[in-house]
Design brief:
The protein is α+β, with helices and mostly antiparallel strands and 359 residues long. It is built from twelve helices and 14 strands. The protein has helices at residues 21-27, 30-39, 41-47, 62-73, 79-89, 110-118, 174-194, 199-203, 262-275, 278-283, 297-303, 306-309; strands at residues 10-11, 17-18, 131-138, 144-153, 158-165, 211-217, 220-229, 233-238, 243-246, 318-323, 330-334, 340-344, 348-351, 354-358. The strands form five sheets. A four-stranded antiparallel β-sheet has the order 6-7-8-14, covered by helices on one side. Strands 3-4-5 form a three-stranded antiparallel β-sheet, covered by helices on one side. The longest helix is centred in the middle third of the chain and has 21 residues, at 174-194. The protein is elongated.
Length: 359
């Protein structure tokens, strides 16, 4: 039986990048799973395994809600982990009780919701970019049964949604309910800000020479520097050397031809597959048919000064993709002082990937 696998991994706290249900169940932690749930990525991931409907929070307390999500996917985690996650992130409600027979003012006003959020947010998120819809849902008797929250950003087409039951009584008061509600909205907004769907909007204000984070390598964000910008794309290079590799092992046949090189194969297969999420990959264009490339000799000379080519520390050398024409085993590279030289393809020099990103 063929094991089903998705194209993009979910990264857990233990560092595992899971692509199958079996891997997820073996490595899952509640914080990672719920973060992907609120961002909407978990739903897309699960659809690859015919899990099409993750539960919404309707008539249960917070711990029961988290448990239902985990049970739907077949994840078993210690009850203590779930309890601690719920209490640390958005509190826990008591067991479902009868809603008091009182007329409650409904929370619907977008302006009022944003005013309340400003008091608990750190100011880094521009709430004006979002439309926050808080909709009360009544039961058959006309009492509020739950609230549905939809958060959208029209600039980036980012969308997230969740439901919270309205379960107030003498112990779980309206004040506590609102506190939990706004904590959940804050949590959803923070996750939305981390989403790559906002990449277009954020990088639109960056210019040549600016740096920003995109993707990750060995568990750390990759910082990139913009070398060239047009109306619809930016050409970027990693701000530092990510690793050290041979350009090509000539015992594998071939020579200094970029097209057939080991380093090109690694960049466009292993590196590309693991360094970027599926959403991030959608933003990556091509450079002469490659998703990931190295700078050519001409690009290094025209897009960077000698001083700008000095990387990390004096003495750090990194590969270019251009072959030295007079020898089939030599390739150009950048010396530690920023000048250009050439050497044998078997030497290990630094790797600074380059990408063309769509705006």
């Amino acid at each position: 039986m063929v094991k089903r696998m998705v194209k993009f991994p979910l990264k857990m706290k233990n560092g595992a990048e899971v692509r199958t249900l079996e891997e997820l169940r073996a490595n899952a932690d509640v914080e990672s799973v719920m973060q992907y749930y609120f961002s909407g990525q978990l739903s897309r991931w699960c659809r690859a395994f015919n899990i099409n409907e993750l539960p919404e929070k309707i008539t249960e307390n917070n711990e029961m809600f988290v448990n239902r999500i985990l049970e739907t996917i077949g994840i078993e985690l210690p009850a203590e982990d779930i309890h601690n996650y719920v209490n640390n992130n958005f509190g826990n409600s008591a067991e479902v009780k009868e809603v008091p027979d009182t007329d409650e003012e409904k929370i619907t006003d977008d302006k009022e919701v944003k005013n309340r959020l400003k008091n608990i947010m750190d100011g880094e998120i521009n709430l004006d970019d979002y439309k926050i819809e808080v909709t009360p849902i009544d039961d058959e008797s006309g009492k509020i049964k739950k609230y549905r929250v939809c958060i959208t950003n029209e600039k980036t087409e980012q969308y997230s949604r969740f439901v919270i039951p309205y379960e107030v009584d003498n112990d779980y008061t309206r004040e506590l309910f609102e506190k939990d509600l706004y904590k959940k909205i804050k949590y959803a907004l923070e996750n939305a800000e981390k989403s790559i769907e906002f990449f277009n909007y954020k990088t639109g204000s960056l210019n040549v020479g600016d740096t920003f984070d995109f993707g990750s390598y060995n568990g750390e964000p990759i910082k990139w520097k913009i070398l060239r910008k047009s109306n619809d794309s930016i050409y970027i290079i990693s701000a530092g050397v990510l690793c050290w590799k041979q350009f090509h092992n000539n015992s594998n046949s071939g020579s200094n031809n970029w097209t057939n090189s080991d380093i090109r194969k690694w960049l466009n297969e292993e590196f590309y597959s693991n360094a970027f999420t599926e959403n991030e990959k959608e933003k990556i264009g091509t450079v002469e048919s490659d998703k990931v490339t190295l700078l050519s000799k001409e690009e290094a000379e025209s897009l960077m000064t000698e001083e700008e080519r000095v990387c990390d520390f004096w003495g750090s050398m990194w590969w270019l993709r251009s072959a030295y024409p007079d020898d089939s085993y030599y390739v150009w590279y950048v010396c530690g002082n920023g000048t250009l030289e050439y050497d044998d393809v078997n030497i290990k020099f630094g790797v600074r990937p380059a990408l063309n990103l769509k705006l």
